[in-house]
Design a protein that fits this description.
alpha+beta, Aminopeptidase, eight-stranded mixed beta sheet, 5 helices, 33% strand
């Protein structure tokens, strides 16, 4: 299988990405796709579309200005919304995407960050990030990018995260 990584640079690529997400039952509003394309054009974000033998296999973003306050304050770019479709998992695609973003960030900076969900669906991602040298940032669990206070009740969903940082060479 030939793996190719392509940066989101055109309306055509945006439509391929949107179609692939629709086929995988991953919902994003139309405005999200438009915003991502515009932010790529402006240099605020880089979106990689991964292809396996010309089929979209996954998508991920690098946000140069994170919405997560500790990353934003420290100018740590954030790997965001890494999706590798189930049929393409365990074939190195996620690692290839992470390698590419780490290479891009290392040209200008020394650290890269990533957030990950805390329930079972995120188990594979948690293990990949740890194996790649990402360590917790020390700020604990957050819900919708806000610290979870001890004793507080929060919903366990995609917005309950732990953020990690990797020191780059």
């Amino acid at each position: 299988m030939k793996i190719t990584l392509t940066l989101l640079t055109s309306e055509e690529l945006k439509q391929q990405w949107k179609q692939a997400f629709t086929e995988q039952d991953i919902f994003r509003p139309d405005e999200y796709y438009d915003k991502c394309l515009a932010e790529n054009a402006a240099g605020a974000r880089e979106t990689i579309i991964a292809y396996a033998d010309d089929q979209v296999a996954g998508v991920c973003h690098l946000k140069y200005e994170s919405d997560y306050p500790p990353f934003k304050e420290q100018d740590i770019p954030e790997v965001n919304d890494l999706n590798v479709f189930p049929v393409f998992q365990r074939q190195g695609i996620g690692n290839r995407i992470l390698e590419e973003f780490e290479s891009i960030v290392s040209r200008k900076g020394k650290r890269i960050g990533i957030g990950v969900g805390l329930f079972k669906d995120y188990g594979k991602a948690q293990r990949i990030y740890c194996r790649r040298g990402y360590i917790p940032d020390g700020h604990g669990i957050v819900y919708k990018n806000q610290p979870v206070v001890p004793g507080e009740m929060v919903r366990v969903d995609d917005d309950l995260n732990l953020f990690f940082i990797k020191e780059l060479q």
